[in-house]
Protein: Phage tail protein
Organism: Sulfurovum sp. enrichment culture clone C5
Amino acid sequence: MNILPVNEPIYLKKIDDFLGNRIDTLSFPKAPFVGIDTRYLDYIAAMFDVDITLYTQSEAKEVLKKAIWSKNKVGTIGAIKKMLQTFDPQANIITHATCPKHDGKIQRNGITTYRNYGLTHWAMYKIELTRAISISQKEELITQLKILAPARCKLINIDAQNTIIHDGRIKRNANYTYGGYING
C-alpha cells in the first residue's frame, strides 16, 4: 500500500514500496556508504538521478558520493571552485563583474584597461585562469558552469591572457586563442 501523495518524487515511492511504508526506518551512517547494504545502492542512485548499472560496487559508491556532494552544492561558488580544480587549481572567480564596451569611453591610460573590468553587477562573474586551455576545454568548462553555477548568474569572461607567452608553443588557430574566452 502506497500512502505517499501522487506528486512525490519517484525515489520516495521506490523507497516506500521497498520498506513497506516504513520510510522513517531507513537510516544512513555518518560516513557515506560505510556499512550500507548493497541492495540499497539502486534506491540511493534513483534518489540522486544517477545511473550506476555499469559500475562495480566500489565505483558505484564513489559515483554516488560525488553525486550527493554535487546535488547539495549545485548553485554555489563552492561547486564552481570544486569543478575548476580539474581545469586549473589556482583559478580565480571574480564576482560582480561587468565587461566594458568598446565604445571609446574607456581610455587606455594605465588606470583603466579593457581587461580591468568594473565590479558592479552582482549576477555577473568571470574566471581568471593561470594556465592556457584549448577552445574545446573552454566549451566544456562553460557547459559545466551552466550546470553548477547559480541560476541567475552569468559568466561573462574566461580570462587566460596572462598565461600566454608568445614563444610559438601555442598557436592561434582552431585549438587556441590568445587567452580571452568571452562567453556571449
